[in-house]
Amino acid sequence: MNTRLGPVLSSLDLPLAELCSARLDGELFALDEFWCPIDEFDGPASRAVAAGFLVPARCIAERRSAAWIYGLVPEPLRHQFCVDAGARAHIPPSPRLQVREVRRATFETRVISGLRVTTQLRTVIDLARDVEDDEVDPVPLLAALLRHGGFADTGPAARLCLRPGLPYKKRALRRLAEAQALLDLPASPA
Question: What strand order describes the sheet that includes 109-112?
């Protein structure tokens, strides 16, 4: 019998009172609505597990949730997921989740700890075109995502934004030009 607990815990693993006590004792830390042992690395793998507990397996983490999984932004108040338009997934309405139907090519996602997550480049394109979150300037995040994905410029993202049928191209290209200016700045010495 395996008595070892997983890297991300919920009230299905231990009673809520015990999880809260362990957190107060410094044995666990909060990760989204879940808890992790203090010696567990808070990285993409554990964040993907926590996000994966929120939705069915057909869901794909995208936009700010994908950026959170990559470790580039704080946890979003409302996680953003998508499902393939042909997946026929039913997700009950929740104030913690935003789910939309899209068409995604398989090369636009990757699997992290069992959860499909949009690649850095696809996340850049989605955030550059996003009209829902105009309160936060996405340009620094776009530059950070491109660096994280190993891109030295915004060229690949700009080419993908020009595909036929994608709305908000002008907004995306303007934001990508601003992100390019940030990418062109010399890196600060560590």
Answer: 97-102, 79-84, 60-61, 115-118, 109-112
